[in-house]
């Protein structure tokens, strides 16, 4: 049984995504060997820390994973693929390849609902952990253009609440689950340390960038028209209206998962805003 203090080799899929790159960074910080799976190795190498092994592969083509799985003890998986985020249908093949390769632990980034890949992982005898983050703090970057241009954020359902999570904390929980025992068979709802309103978020960003920001309330119809003009597909728009208008309790309740799993408190939105303040300045 590997000692979590000893270096382990972990394969990370979706390694250049919002969460994937944080899983990679945390594993590297902890001294583990990271192999990143990507369709475009040349592009990925520029986005990942020095020392990460970048290999070519495609989750829609399971045999392409065989070389990448060689010597790997942990595997981080995403459940969607392609420009339209279609659920992966290759879960059973991927799980079997992982078992054959000797993978012991698997983390799955939950995609918002049941998927064939997650179902296959949960039905396996691998030590699996499902990562279920609520709203990413990084989603605030979607406001950057409007804030720089108009000093304003236009959103519907302005009274909605969120326990939004720093993406680095998702990566930290994932890294622990991939390298330490005791997390198999667990589904972790991952949140930040506080519940925030839209006004709280906007005011925090204003403090970080040193300039006031107005919160402009939109009707649902106005919001849908704005998102449609921005190129969002209708299914995404429908999802946003539903989750913003009726945020489930999981999305607005602090869980404490980060502290329990990693041993340190979750990062605040004020910290995230300070780290990204330049994106909101002219």
Automatic annotation (TrEMBL):
It comes from the Bacteria. This is NAD(P)H-binding protein.
């Amino acid at each position: 049984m590997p000692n979590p203090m000893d270096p382990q080799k972990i394969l990370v899929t979706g390694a250049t995504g919002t969460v994937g790159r944080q899983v990679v960074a945390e594993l590297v910080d902890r001294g583990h060997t990271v192999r990143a799976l990507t369709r475009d190795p040349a592009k990925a190498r520029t986005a990942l820390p020095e020392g990460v092994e970048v290999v070519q592969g495609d989750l829609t083509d399971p045999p392409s994973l065989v070389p990448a799985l060689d010597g790997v003890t942990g595997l981080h998986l995403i459940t969607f693929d392609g420009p339209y985020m279609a659920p992966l249908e290759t879960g059973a093949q991927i799980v079997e390849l992982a078992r054959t390769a000797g993978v012991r632990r698997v983390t799955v980034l939950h995609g918002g609902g049941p998927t064939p890949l997650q179902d296959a992982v949960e039905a396996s005898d691998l030590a699996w952990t499902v990562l279920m983050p609520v709203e990413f703090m990084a989603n605030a970057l979607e406001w950057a253009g409007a804030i720089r241009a108009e000093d304003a954020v236009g959103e519907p359902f302005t009274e909605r609440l969120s326990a939004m999570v720093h993406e680095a904390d998702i990566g930290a929980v994932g890294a622990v689950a991939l390298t330490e025992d005791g997390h198999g068979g667990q589904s972790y709802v991952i949140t930040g340390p506080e519940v925030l309103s839209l006004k709280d978020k906007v005011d925090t960003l204003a403090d970080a960038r040193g300039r006031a920001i107005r919160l402009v309330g939109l009707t649902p119809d106005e919001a849908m028209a704005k998102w449609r003009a921005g190129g969002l597909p209708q299914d995404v728009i429908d999802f946003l209206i539903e989750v913003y208008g009726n945020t489930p309790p999981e999305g607005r309740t602090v869980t404490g998962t980060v502290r329990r799993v990693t041993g340190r408190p979750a990062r605040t939105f004020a910290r995230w805003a300070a780290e990204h303040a330049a994106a909101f300045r002219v």
